Each structure stands twice: as structure tokens, then as C-alpha cells.
Amino acid sequence: MSPTSPASLVAVLDDRRCSGCRLCLPACDARALIWVTAERELFLDTWACTGCGDCVRSCPEGALRMDGRAMGRGDPLTAAPSPLRGEARVRGDPQ
């Protein structure tokens, strides 16, 4: 598998940049992006993400980006260094 194949990538959400416009939701065929109405917040299920990048292209705020998935070593954000670690909220991350 090449390092740029879709299976080796995962979307990363920077919730500080997300305005809540929800334009990314219909772009995600994998339904990895979840809008939680009660919290007025977008969550990203990294396990459902297929790494296609459609959400990144649909986001006018630049709140989504692609990063390398740490294959076979647990959660991609906790297993691989990321410049946004600690700033991005991902479904399942502690508050």
C-alpha cells in the first residue's frame, strides 16, 4: 500500500476553525462526519473515515485536512504525531 493511498489517510478536524456550516456532511459518503445538534458541534469518526479527502475539498473554512493513518497501531491521532494534536477534537477524544 502506498503512503498516499486513501486507506493510509484520515481526515483531521480543527474545531477552532469550524464555523458549523455543515457543507462537509453531504461530501462524506462514509458518514464519518457527525453533526451533534445539541452541542452545535461537528465530530469526526476516524474509524469510519475512508481517507478520500472529499470533506477537505468541501470545507470553506479549512477546518479539515488529511493526515497519515497509523495502520495497525490504534487510533491514528494518538499513534502518529500530528501538528494539531491537542487542538483537534475527534469523536472519542477526552475533553
Label this structure with key terms.
9% helix, mainly beta, 2 helices, two-stranded antiparallel sheet, single chain, Alpha-Beta Plaits, 95 residues, 4 strands, globular
Description:
There is one protein chain. This protein has 95 residues and is mainly beta. The protein has one domain: 2-Layer Sandwich (Alpha-Beta Plaits), CATH 3.30.70. It is built from two helices and four strands, in the order βββαβα. It has helices at 54-58, 76-79, and strands at residues 9-13, 33-36, 41-44, 64-68. The strands form two sheets. The protein has a two-stranded antiparallel sheet. The longest helix has 5 residues, at 54-58. Mean pLDDT is 78; it is low at 1-6 and 73-88.
Label the structural class: mainly beta
Instruction: Name the poorly predicted regions.
Output: 1-6, 73-88
Q: Indicate the CATH architecture.
A: 2-Layer Sandwich
Q: Main sheet, how many strands, which sense, barrel? A: 2 strands, antiparallel
Helix content: under 10%
Share of residues in strands: 15-25%
Count of helical regions: 2
**What is the global morphology?**
globular
- Report the span from N to C terminus: 34 Å
CATH class: Alpha Beta
Strand order within the widest sheet? 1-4
The overall average pLDDT, rounded, is 78
SS elements, strand count: 4
CATH fold type: Alpha-Beta Plaits
* String of helices and strands: EEEHEH
Number of domains: 1
